[in-house]
Amino acid sequence: MITADSTSGTDAAPHRYTAALADDIERRWQDRWESDGTFWAPNPVGDLADQAAAELDLGPKFFIMDMFPYPSGAGLHVGHPLGYIGTDVVGRFRRMLGDNVLHTMGYDAYGLPAELHAIQTGEHPRDNTLANIETMRRQLRRLGLAHDDRRSFATIDLDFMRWTQWIFVQIFESWYDDVAGRARPISELRAEYASGQRRAPDGTVWADLEPMERSILVDGARLAYVDDSPVNWCPGLGTVLANEEVTAEGRSERGNFPVFTRNLRQWKMRITAYSDRLIDDLDRVDWPESVKIMQRNWIGRSAGAHVRFATEAGTPIEVFTTRPDTLFGATYMVLAPEHPLVGRLTPEAWPDDVPRTWTNGVSDPRSAISAYREAAAAKTDVERQAGSSESSRAKTGVFTGAYATNPVNGERVPVFIADYVLMGYGTGAIMAVPSGDQRDFEFATAYDLPVVSTLAEQEGHDAAYSGEGTIINSSNDSITLDGMSVDDAKAAMIGWLQDHGHGAGTTTYRLRDWLFSRQRYWGEPFPIVYDAQGQPHAVPDDQLPVESPEVPDYSPRTYEPDDASSEPAPPLARATDWVQVELDLGDGPQQYRRETNTMPNWAGSSWYELRYADPHNEGALVDPANEAYWLGPRGEGDTGGVDLYVGGVEHAVLHLLYARFWHKVLFDLGHVSSEEPFKKLFNQGYIQAYAFTDERGVYVPAEEVLEADDGTFTFEGRPVDREYGKMGKSLKNAVTPDEMYAEYGADTLRVYEMSMGPLDASRPWETRAVVGSQRFLQRLWRLFVDEESGEVLVDDAADVDAGTLHQLHVTIDGVRADMDAMRFNTAIAKLIELTNLLTKNQVRARSVLEPLVLMTAPVAPHVAEELWSRLGHSESLAHHPFPEADPAHLSAATVTCVVQVAGKVRGKLEVDPQIGDEDLQALALAEDNVVRTIDGREIRKVIVRAPKLVSIVV
């Protein structure tokens, strides 16, 4: 879209601020910033240290970060830079306040899109990824972002990957000491076993253990470990997925393939050891409360009790409950279909008089259990959870043929399996209380099981009630809960369980250990090898990084999407010469087998903030002095971390939780001084757009759609439907930054995106509205430059009236406050208002225009630098002090007083803000139009509200 304002045709004044002039200005200043190192932030020590700055003291620091972008092949659309422009405005403002600002941009370059591209085209994912990075770098540079380009990297860079693998080794070589409340080196645990200070869980001493038994004992405590456990297996992708990568419909986020629960041997990280710290330390960081709530809910800390129910098979069933006060209402039990006790409990034949509905019509228990287990395995945990909360969904299950004993009343209760109970949560078993849980109530209704009310408030109702109330029907020979409140009954029941050996009070968590294996090629190889006995060993530091081998085919072995019985076959397994390796791990050369899974794409983004602080350090993850300066705590109770981290809320329980875990491990091991990676978090909104579909449901180019007066839309004469949401290439509604640069310039795009609304709110993109931001910059330009001659119009000697000075300093005060609070839209509105006033009054005074340029610089840096230069300044304004308001000019020189006669406005006066009532009344009665309106009539009353109102009653 070319507009009259953006064209540089022959009818335009030769020195008008057009897209062509903006392009010239912006490219020149971007080149100068790069050649001068304008945005380089000096480090205290190392190759990025500035000795001159160090001698003068580096001063206050400000570390600002954007969430790692993934270099997509489609490049950027105008929605992507919203947060990047916002952080750039903050960084430029903080430099002008005198801060040493660290702001740079790296690239989260591992990921499934590049691998899928490689599978489809045969192009190495590295080549494709590097090309995508160059495209993104070009687009971001053209935006004028004030980044320290010396600190940029990609997660696929070998010197970065080396330290990612090194951190994994640190985690692998650590264990969590619950007594000390921190991670410690695994060597210290081994030493405690060897000295006799610590024994194996079964009481065996270290000296009595065989070497393999010792390895198994120690490996079982590691923070990174291999485990056989239920995982989300996606045959269509040929890989396992973390819970967070599975949709609520039980399908993969990538590709929308079905996902199944399978028991597989995979790498995990013991993030659960940090559950309490991950929850408690949320109170110490400046994050949006919505994100804190999501993390707390995801971790899911619950206080309650473990209760043991005896069974006829001799093996008790243990459950966790947050409501031990309802034990007298437990009328049946449910195990997850995968529970290991199911096979032990299930008899060969049904007991006598079992209702047919309990057996699903199957003639023997084992066949019934097998059939139900197979059906449940076809669903993911997410799908089972989602379905279990929908009362309209029929509850399914099958009786195991076994009974357990309720410990509080001796009642014999049947044991079922049902898919709404998950093996991965709690103990994989529940005591079902139909009166207190709606899922249990619906299951009990479907299977005709008893409902016993334990709260007076629930009795007589046809639904479960789990709130507060008075306990009823809850007594035996040794305890009476009747009449108690819920809290008192919980405490009393926990005490009774402990005294009688039936359970104990405890805390459980919803969070499960982090699944860390992927069956992919394009990911960091694990720095792990296995010996002949299958035991894992870390690759020594001097052999890092472990690089990916070349392979003939980048795809994992994939299967029919519904083939739940398939097995993972990673691409790295094909590189047999790489897999089988001879290494010396300290005991002489031996044959080992490399790990053929790769790390997930979350690995590099779990620590990259540390590498920004010291990107070229070959001897350490980060130098302690640089880490302490950029991320270290600044006072008692301060967690430390990045000063401002900006990104989307969709990463609340993925990247943000994982990064906090890695950082805390590194803190425990003494590698960093900060306890949290990100001190302040800000979630930017999204730029959204309209998309249009024809009668076939096919998207059509949005820019070619026409809107009629009646609000309908057509494409090539045919009606189309409009929808609102994401912007994207596939939706044919994407607008690229390159288009905006060509038609308006980068500064116009920056001003428009920052003026659309609050940074944390989503907003619709409207290309036709961009011209308004360009016109603002053109008015600004005309204040300084004659469009015909190019002459600078600023007058050094011009006098400035009190009203203009007042408006200038009110604007400075307001813009400064808005910038500090990231209210960029209102700051721009104030700049536009001041520019319009100066344009109207033809104000050319240097003392007014220079502060205007400086205030505009954070949002429109190129045009501001150009005007600053034309004002005679040889140095960049990037580090020039931001204007400060003079308190003497903040009070208005005059205010407008409205004079009413008989309720109608008949006059206006410009008066001193401090004028008294008598003086104001005298001025009002003397005003010419007021005198004419009164016309000699009697004045009955004069109401004075100095300095803004005089009301005359005649």
Give a brief rundown of this model.
The protein is an alpha+beta fold. It is 33% helix and 17% strand. Among the domains are: 302-508, Valyl/Leucyl/Isoleucyl-tRNA synthetase, editing domain (Isoleucyl-tRNA Synthetase, domain 2), CATH 3.90.740.10; 895-953, Ubiquitin-like (UB roll) (Roll).
Keywords:
Isoleucyl-tRNA Synthetase, domain 2, alpha+beta, 954 residues, single chain, 6-stranded mixed β-sheet, 30 helices, 7-stranded mixed β-sheet, disordered N terminus
End-to-end separation in angstroms reads 61 Å
- Derived from helix and strand composition plus strand pairing, the structural class reads alpha+beta
For the biggest sheet, the summary is: 7 strands, mixed
The number of distinct helices, counting runs of at least 4 residues, comes to 30
The portion of residues assigned to helices is 25-40%
Mean pLDDT: 92
Strand content bin: 15-25%
Globally, the shape reads globular
Please state the second-level CATH architecture of the domain at 302-508.
Alpha-Beta Complex
CATH class of the domain at 302-508: Alpha Beta
Can you identify the CATH superfamily of the domain at 302-508?
Valyl/Leucyl/Isoleucyl-tRNA synthetase, editing domain
**CA-atom Rg in angstroms:** 35 Å
Number of strands: 31
* CATH fold label of the domain at 302-508: Isoleucyl-tRNA Synthetase, domain 2
* Unreliable spans: 1-10, 387-392
